[in-house]
Amino acid sequence: IPLLFRATVAKLLRSQPAQVVEPKGLLYVQQREFAVTTPKDGIVSGSMFWLLSEQILNFISMSLTNSLLTPSSGSGATCLTHCDGSDTAAEVSLIMSSVKSFSNTTGYGRLEVHLVGGFNDDRQLSQKLTNQLLNKNTKAYKFYFFLLTELNDREEKDIHFPIIYGIAVNVKTAEIFPATFPEKGPDEDLRSARVLTGAALTNIYDAKMEQLHIGPYFWRPFPHVDFWLEQDDEQILQNLSTSPLAEPPHFVSHIRSTLAFLKEHPFPSRSLFPDRKPRIYKKNEEGLWEQVCSDKI
Predict the structure, then answer these.
(1) What's the Cα-to-Cα distance from 115 to each of 147, 149, 189, 255, rounded to whole Å?
(2) Which CATH class is domain 3-296?
(3) What is the spatial distance between Cα 267 and Cα 290, in angstroms, rounded to a whole number?
(4) Using alpha carbons only, what angle is made at residue 210 by residues 186 and 68, rounded to the nearest 5 degrees?
(5) Strand partners, 111
(6) How far apart are CA 249 and CA 244, in angstroms?
(7) Could you report the per-residue pLDDT of 52-111, keeping only the tens digit for each?
(8) Is 68 helix (H, G, I), strand (E, B) or coil?
(9) What angle do CA 196, 202, 171 make, to 5 degrees?
(10) What PANTHER family does this protein's entry cite (predicted)?
(11) Torsion angle of alpha carbons 101, 104, 108, 112, nearest 10°?
């Protein structure tokens, strides 16, 4: 892809205002999660299907195009995930394998990779992650465009902020655009608790069954949880964020809610997943997630 074209696409994306996306027809992707689906996904009949994530560090979005099939019959698989640098090599390998599994032919072509996120943070964590992603073996995929680090940076009173905090992918049209949204469920606190306790990247969506699978997740009691819950907002911001000056307004309340959840569930194997089975959700007729019993699956 010509560099000028990449720069033009990145500039257009950066200039777009963030769209507010309501819960109907939404699949929200949190930190260290990914989801893969295709335009044939039918969980929202006659409507659009969204994959979104809202975090401060880098995103990697991959879509598989099959050069041997027409767009209508090819897989058109799209994956969206949030890579935060915890294990970039393993995460990229897992993502690529998951997307390729949707191709029913060996001639699937190369993955098209779209990278969005990061900014010029003081600790240069975004730059480090950007280098990790860009230095991967590119023979298996090609970069369509990227909006990374300094390209996603704005400065205000000598403080750096990201321009885009969240992105959306419409898997029906392959449109990518900045987004924000009021709902981040289901099981927002549970999924956030998993991240805060150091879990690895995981796939949360079964596209063939059109179901969202949450868990089972297990962790040990979070250390000093009572201490952290007693701290004021500034202490939480300074100690539990990688970029305290650039966090969105809801960051502290989100962390507090997650810590309270960890305090309430120190042993999830007992209180949340005693049968060691995932929580399974399907879309109802209104396009909203609804938990289903395992005997109804």
Answers:
(1) 6, 10, 27, 26
(2) alpha beta
(3) 25
(4) 130
(5) 64, 141
(6) 11
(7) 555 444 344 443 322 122 222 346 778 888 877 778 788 888 888 888 787 664 445 567
(8) coil
(9) 115
(10) N-TERMINAL ASPARAGINE AMIDOHYDROLASE (PTHR12498), PROTEIN N-TERMINAL ASPARAGINE AMIDOHYDROLASE (PTHR12498:SF0)
(11) -40
